[in-house]
Amino acid sequence: MSSERVTSDLLLTLVNTRPSENGRVDQLDDVPGLTAWLAGAGLTVADPVTGADVAAARELRDALTDILRVHCGCGDASAAEAEAYLRAVAVRYPVVLRVTVDGVTAEASQTGIPGVFGTVLAAAADLSARGAWPRLKLCKNPSCHAGFFDKTRNQSGQFCGAACNSQMSMRAYRSRRRTAPTP
Ligand SMILES: [Zn+2]
User: Fold this and answer.
1) What separation in Å is there between the alpha carbon of 92 and the centre of ligand 1?
2) Ligand 1 center to 140 CA (angstroms)
3) How far is the CA of 126 from the centre of ligand 1 (A)?
4) Which of 2, 102, 152, 170 is 20 to 30 A distant from 139 in Cα terms?
């Protein structure tokens, strides 16, 4: 697995804890939810997770979601509020640079939950350094809105997968037929 994949996967697993009309349930709605997400992401913390951690995780998730919404050009999405929020929390969850012969990587400078959030921000920095940040998008199917990594050559992907693609093509076809003049 490439490290680009690893960093995008971490961000996507966070964004995709959001509920959706097509069946995803909110996985970050309580302490057990956040604990399970941490375990699934391989990010274990020594201290017990608190309700405040859950609230902070949701805020970070929702701000990142807003950025991905702009990446997909969904509606008239604006990320100004999310950018301001992320600028503020980046101070709370700082990352440091590790400079080696092979390259420079960003890493969280703290442990515990602040370290986890720092790792999330470091993953975003890593994707951005690879020029892949705009490829992290939300699916344009309104009943889905899952985060996905756009692998298309010209960065034109709009849907998280074939199912959403065909569902939306079908919907567009039907609405064209409805509006077509009858002979
Ligand atoms: Zn989708």
Assistant:
1) 33
2) 7
3) 25
4) 2
Q: How far apart are CA 67 and CA 70, in angstroms?
A: 5
E strand or H helix at 98: strand 95-100
Report the pLDDT value the prediction gives residue 183, as an integer from 0 to 100: 63
Each residue of 89-123: pLDDT tens digit?
999 999 999 999 999 999 999 999 999 999 999 99
Q: Which superfamily does CATH assign the domain made up of 3-179 to?
A: Jann2411-like domain (1.10.3300.10)
70 CA distance to ligand 1 middle (Å): 16
Contacts for 158 with CB less than 8 Å, ≥ 6 apart: 72, 137, 139, 140, 165, 168
| pLDDT tens per residue across span 80-90 | 999 999 999 99
For residue 8, how many C-alpha atoms fall within 13 Å in the half-sphere facing its CB? 23
* Distance from the alpha carbon of residue 101 to the mean position of ligand 1, in angstroms: 40
pLDDT band per the 50, 70, 90 thresholds, residue 1: very low
DSSP 25: P
CA distance 72 to 53: 29
> Where are the strands (E) in 4-94, listed by range?
none
- Residue for token pair 């990446």: 71
